[in-house]
Each structure stands twice: as C-alpha cells, then as structure tokens.
Amino acid sequence: MLEVANLEAGYGKIQILNGLSLSANENKLTLLIGPNGAGKSTLLKTIFGFVKPSKGSIRFQGEEISSIPSHQLTSLGIGFLLQRVSVFPDLTIEENLKLGAWSFKRDSARVAQRIEYMYDKFPILKEKRKESAGLMSGGQKRMLEIARTLMPGPKLILVDEPSAGLSPKIAKEVYRVLHELKDEGITLVMVDQNIRESIAYSDYVYVLERGRVSSESAADEIGKNLKQVVESWLKF
Amino acid sequence: MEQLEKKTMIVLLLVALILPSFANEYTLHIVILACFYAILSSSWNLLAGYSGQISFAHVALSSLGAYTSGLLALKFGIHPVITILCGAVIAGIFGAIIGALTLRMSGSYLALTTIAFSEIYRIVISLEYEITNGQVGLSVPGLFGEATSKITYYYTAIALVVIIVFIGIQKLVKSDFGLTIRAIREDETAAAAMGAKVVRHKVVVFAISSAIAGLAGAFLAHYTLLVSPQMATITEMGIVISMSVIGGLGTFIGPVLGGISLELISEYVKEFGNYHLMIFGLILILVMRFAPMGLAGVLFSIPSKIYKKKPAQQIRKEI
Amino acid sequence: MDGLSPMLAQLVNGLIIGSIYGLMALGLTIIFGVLKIVNFSHGEFYMLGAYASYFISQTLGLHPVLGIVVAIGATFIIGMLIEKALLPPLFENKVERKEEYALLVTFGLSLFLINLALAVFGPFQKSAPALTKGNIDLGVISLSSGKVLAAVIAIVVLLITLFVIQKTWLGTALRAISQDRDASAIMGINAKRLGSIAFGLGACMAGAAGALLGPVFLVYPIMGTVPAIKSFVIIVLGSMGSIKGAIYGALLVGIVESLGVIFLSPAYRDVYSFLILILVLLFKPKGLFGGAQWNN
User: Fold this and answer.
1) Which domain holds residue A52?
2) How many domains does chain A divide into?
3) Per-residue tens of pLDDT for chain C, all 296 residues
4) Which of A143, B54, B174, B224 could disulfide-link to B48, CB 3.0 to 4.6 Å?
5) Each residue of A104-148: pLDDT tens digit?
6) Which residues pair with residue A209 across a beta bridge?
7) Does residue A114 form part of some domain?
8) Which residues of chain C neighbour B284 with C-beta distances below 8 Å?
9) Domain coordinates of chain B in residue numbers?
10) Is residue A187 part of a domain?
C-alpha cells in the first residue's frame, strides 16, 4: 500500500532522513519506533508532503506521490493524525467534522450521512456538537481528530504518537479505536514512543535510528530483542 | 565581502575628493542631497537592518532635529554649528523614548506605533502655526550663510559628516555591541537567554540612529535654509526605506548604494515627470520578492541572511 | 435644545463614517486572520475602489451603486492577483523574518500604488457624485441621504460577509486556515488558493469603503492613508483577528473622534485615533477583546 524508498529529507541544512526505505502492507498496522531525533515524525511529515524530500520516492498504491501537494492527498485516501492537538479550537465540533468532509463537500447527503456515522461511533461528539472544540478535554479532542480524519473514509492513516499527553485510561481508549480501524480495512502507519501499548496491536515493526531503518521484523518476533534494542537507545 | 565593500568605499571617497574641481554647482547640490539621504538611510539601516526594529518615525525624528536646530538658531541667534548638535541630541532623546516605549513590540506593531508617532508629529508641526509657520515652513539661517556662494563649504561639511557617521556605524556594527544587536534581530529570545541586555541595546540603537537622523535633518535645514513638514511625511519615510532595502537591508554599504542610485534615478526620471516614487515602490517590491539582499547582495554576493533557512527555527516551528 | 443638535449631528456623522471604516477594518481583520500579516497597502485598495467607482459614476455617468459593485469586483481581483504575486515566499518557508517581509512588501506596494495613481489620475481631488440626493429630516437633525445610504450599504455588505464567514463552506475553511494551517491541508483545503481569496476579500472590503466614502471625502491618490491608519486603530483596539472586535472598535473610534471634534479641536480630528492607537499598543496591545483569535 505504501512504499518509501531511499528517502532523504530534512530542514534546510539539517538532514534528518538519510536514505530511508520501508513499506506498509495493506490493512496492517505498521509501527515505527526509535529514539528521539531518529526521524519518525519527519518521515510521516515527508510522506504527507509537509517536508519536501531531496531524494527518494514515496509510492502509494503504486503511484508516486512525493510531488503531489499535501492538500490533494486526502482525496487520494490518505489521512494524517498529527502528534500535537490539531482540532480547530474556535470552530464547533460539528464544524470540525464538516471540514473533514471538505473533499466531498458538494455531496451534502454523504456529508450528513458521514457525520451521523461519526456521532454513532463517538457519542460524546454528538453530545457536544455545538460547543467549541477548543474547550474539550485532551481525550475528547483526540477522538474528534480521529473522527474528523475518518470522515472521507481514508485507506491509509498516518498516526503520530496517538497517546501523547493523554492519561493511560484515555490512551487505552484511543488505541482501541485505532485498532478497530483495521477491521474496517484501513491501513495504519504509526509512530509511537509508547511501545508496550502499541506493539500489542501492531503487525510489523520498523526500528528507526538516525534517519534510517536499523532493523525490522514482524511484531510477534521482536518481543525478545526489544529490551536490548530500547536499552541501546539510552546509550545516546 | 568585506574587502570589496571597503574598496568601494575608498573609490567613492576618491570620487568625492576630486568632485568639486570639475563638477558644477547643480551637481554638487545633488551630491549633497544624496549624502543627506545616505546618512538617513544608513542610520535607519542601523535600526531596522541591524537591530531589526523597523521604525517609521525616522524622518519625523530627523525633522524634529531640524526644527529644534532651526528654531534655536532663529529665535535665539545661536550659531547653527551648535544648534545642529542640539537637534541631534533632542532627536536622540526622543528616539530613546520611542525605543523604550516600543520595546516589546514586534514588527507590525512597532511599525504601526511609529507611524502613529510620525503622523501626530507632522500634524502638530503643521497646525501649530504660531511656532512653526505651519505648512509654509520656517526660514532658518545657513551654516555658512547663503548656499550658492559657499556650496563647496557645505559639500565639504557634509562629506565630513558622512565619513564620520560611516566610520562610527562601521565601528559600532563590528563591535561586541553590534554583534549583540544583530543577534537580537535574528532571535531576540535566544539572545536574551544568552544574557544579552536586550532592553539596553535596543534603546541605545534607537537613540543613536535617531540622533544621526536629527543631525542630518538639521544639516539639511541649514543648507536649504528652510524647515518644513514636508520632510516628515510617510512619503519621505518611503524614500528612506526604499533606499535602504533596495541597497541592501542589514548590510553596511547597502544604504549608501541605495541612496546614491535612487537619487541618480530620481534625477534622471524627473526629466520625464514625477514618476520616481512609483519606480522606487516597484523596485522595492521586486527586490523584496526576488533579491532581498538588495543591490549589495547582487553585486557583492553576500551570503543571504533573509533567504537562508534557519534549521533551528524551522524545527521549533514544526514541533 | 439648540446646542444639542450640532453635537448630535456630529455624533451620528461619526457613527455613519465609523460603520464604513468598520467595513474596511473587517477586511484588514480577514487578511490578518487568514494570512497572519498586516496589510500596509490596505489604504490603497480603499483608494482604488474610490477611483473605480468614480470612473463608473462620474466618467461614464452610470448609477453610483453600480460604481460600488464594480469597485468591489475590481479590488477583489486585483487583491487576489497581488497576493499570488507577492506573498508566496511567506508560505514556502523561504523567508526567515516573515513579519518583516510582509511589512516591507506591502509597504512597497503602497508606495507604488499611491504614486501610480498620482501619475495616472493626477493629484487633484475629484468630486464623486453622491449615492443619492436629498436629505432625511429627523426633526432634531438632518442627514444627507447619500451618507445614510452609504452606511446602509456598508452594513449590508458587512452582514453578507459575516454570513459567508460563519455559514458557508468557504468561510468555515477560511476560519480553519486561520486557526491551523496544517490541519486544514490535511482536510484537503488548498490554503494557498484560499489565502488569495482571503486577501481579495479583505481588499474588496477596503475598496467598497472607498467607493462609499469617495462622494463624502473627495477622491485623490493619498485618500487611503488616513483611513488605513484608522483601520489599524480599529483592529488593534478590537483585538487583531477578532471580527466582533473590529465592529465594536469601529463604532468606538467613530464616537471618540466625534467627541474629540466636538469638545476639543476639529483640526486635530485624525490625531485622536492615532493617540488611541498608541495608547492601546502601549497598554493593552491585545486589544479590548483579548487574544488574537479569529473568532466571533
């Protein structure tokens, strides 16, 4: 579904990705772990076009997308759940959801149908639909972001640290919701520091270090080496 | 390239030295005006280009120096040499005040505040007819008496002022003080974190730059024998900004180049009509858009300060 | 009371003109909210709108209201084109000091447009025909119908704009961009294109104000400078980026100016708003409505 080959990218003179290659299979949860500065978030941003790669290719469903402007990726079926809070704080929850339907806004029937679907899936959003998104709790904002990302029915979602800043209880909820997305046929590429939680749901794991893949394996196999790998990061 | 800058300055100096022997009075007059603008632009560049405080009050402060000097000379009979210095001091003081008031203001807010100060000044000067003679302007005594007969004196005087001001600015910029100032422009928070006394530096630069502007304004007044509100308009400010930016904001030789070239352009264009300001505006836009280091950058290929991506800042933004 | 009616007239006059400045200030707010820049050439779109309207109503002899429509259309298009031409460096991460860039570029534009107008139209103040003739007599005071109609049109345009911003897809997207540009891109919103539209929208509101006030204040190349500064005062007072603030700020400025004219000196009329600006920037830089968010 997603293939990244020899990707090089960075910010100005600072090169973060140094020839990174990986692939994410359809309907699987591919986990990216690694120490700080390894380039995990940068990779996701580069895939989505917020950072321009200097070398390499990004293929989605066989097609090269590295030169496609970010805002066009939604209609191709790619979503992005940012690490930071990204709800539109001064818009209502309903307006936030509506904007998720921007790429098919002309189809008002489908827009209404998708919003109702999200309200069924996330009742708390229906309850607070007319409230400003900025006033919600951290967990509620996360749910809104997920619902909003799901509005256009994406095939691939990039997820950057889904539980960042959330209490363990809420984080568990978030992971549950994300895990369920696989049942709906969605492919997930997830960056996470919270390895213990997310590895339980993952299918394949890539370890990133210094802008490159240093090791990869199926999720169930990595368990034995995991402690060693994580400890090696602490030596930085 | 510092060497190239120095060489250019020396060439200009040599030209300036031999000019009076073959140039006619009109040419000398133009050169004197160009020198005035070069001083004004360089001092504005000190404030805006080096310390990043884009003030629109510069010409108003220059005018303040002019009126102070003119009124002192006219009403109290003090010799212009002294009153010009008084004008510089007064302008410097008010510059320090404005600098202190606008310390916490960023680009647009600072610009708006200084525009407001400038316009209030201009309106008050224009309306307080009793003291300032309003829009008509005030006739003031000359530094050397009548301009026409003594033009070489004026030329020499302003050339000296130019040299002193430039050497002064050069020394200031190269000193530790100047380094701190430039750090403040790049990233004020980081500079403060490193222990720079941001407040003091910003206010001092404002004071120095305003004092130089006052000096220039006062000199011009005692050369043209007139002070009027005309020199305090936003249009005049636009000329100064254009010269500095087109010449090269944040460089040493930029404002000089800008002052000279724009003055020459306007002389040439005036043959056809009053289009020079329009051209200044157009070139200003084009320079900002395509060559932000200005003439200095284009000619001397000085590594771009504005166009360089700052990785640290970029990353900070992304996070 | 006889002493009261010139004061009342002055006050009403202030409110009328204030409402039109409010329109202009709203345009500035939209540009600031979506593009995060202060448009230093805002006054020149006001001026262009006035000239466009003048051309239609005086030169071509058509109805002045048509002139206003043309002014809005022309300044919208010119605004969009200018945004596309001059502002891309802000969003391509090529510029380190964005605020400085926007300031100098829009200031250069201002310099260019004013002197272009001087060159093309000449410096002389032109008299544009009023929107309509006659007076409205309210007993205590008498208002010129032209001014009242201008205020009414301004309020109508204001309401339409508010409707667009609050209730339409476009408006919601503009608000989204102003709050989170990256998240907007993820939604599929083309922030670059909508940014151009936002600038055009802001510019055409200045153009509308110019077309409406042209008959009141005469049409000439530097006519936009003082209204622009007043717009700055309004949005700073009303908290930059706040729509509600812009509207209230406009009324406040109109009233304060009128009071200053009535009780102090008419010659210093413009100084009052400049003083307000300085005082607000010094003591309450976030304005009276707190925060710089593009909210209601």
Assistant:
1) 2-90+156-233
2) 1
3) 456 677 888 888 888 888 899 999 999 999 999 999 999 999 999 999 999 999 998 888 888 889 999 999 999 999 999 999 999 998 887 777 888 999 999 999 999 999 999 999 988 888 888 877 777 776 667 778 888 888 999 999 999 999 999 999 999 999 999 999 999 999 999 999 999 999 999 999 999 999 999 988 889 999 999 899 889 988 888 887 788 888 888 888 888 888 888 888 777 778 888 888 888 888 887 877 765 444 43
4) B54
5) 999 999 999 999 999 999 998 998 889 999 999 989 999 999 999
6) A212
7) no
8) 104, 107-108, 111-112
9) 22-233
10) yes
Contact B56, B256 (CB under 8 A): no
Distance CA C246, CA C239 (A): 7
Cα(C169)–Cα(B167) distance, integer angstroms: 59
The dihedrals phi and psi of A5, each to the nearest 5 degrees, come to -130, 125
- Produce one character per residue of B64-98: b if its CB has 16 or more CB atoms within 10 Å, e if not: bbbbbbbbbbbeeeeebeebbbbbbbbbbbbbbeb
Determine the average pLDDT of the residues in B135-164.
Answer: 81
Block residue for tokens 């009535």: C262
Partners of residue C294 in chain A, C-beta under 8 Å? 90
Q: Is the dihedral of CA C229, C234, C238, C244 positive or negative?
A: negative
By C-alpha distance, which of C151, C146, C144, C143 is closest to C132?
Answer: C146
Q: Taking CB atoms and an 8 Å cutoff, what residues of chain B touch A161?
A: none
Chains that touch B (3 or more CB pairs under 8 A): A, C
User: Residue A196 sits in a domain of what CATH number?
Assistant: 3.40.50.300
On the 0-12 / 13-18 / 19+ scale of CB atoms within 10 A, B137 is buried
Strand A204-209 and strand A29-33: pairing?
A: parallel
CA C257, CA C252: separation in Å to the nearest integer? Answer: 8
The answer to whether residues B115 and C229 touch, using CB atoms and an 8 Å cutoff, is yes
* Residue C15: burial class (beta carbons within 10 Å; 0-12, 13-18, 19+): middle
Pairwise pLDDT comparison (A90 vs B314), residue with the higher score:
A90
Residue A36 lies in a domain: yes
pTM (two decimals): 0.89
Contact A70 C186 (CB under 8 A): yes
Give the CA distances from residue C153 to residues A93, A187, B8, C158, in Å, rounded to whole numbers and listed in that order. 34, 53, 59, 8
Which H or E element spans position A21? strand A14-24
How far does the CA of residue B303 sit from the closest CA of chain A (Å)?
A: 15
CA dist., res. B245 & res. B255, Å (int): 7
Number of residues in chain B: 319
Give CA–CA dist B122/B78, Å, rounded: 25
Kindly state whether residue A97 falls inside one of the protein's structural domains: no
In a 3-state reduction of DSSP, which class is residue B127?
Answer: helix
Q: Per residue in A165-189, is it b (16+ CB within 10 Å) or e — as a string?
A: ebeeebbebbbebbeebeeeebbbb
Could you tell me if the ipTM is greater than 0.85? yes
Nearest beta carbon to residue B123 from set C96, C270, C281: C270
Pairing relationship of beta strands A53-60 and A14-24 according to DSSP bridges: unpaired
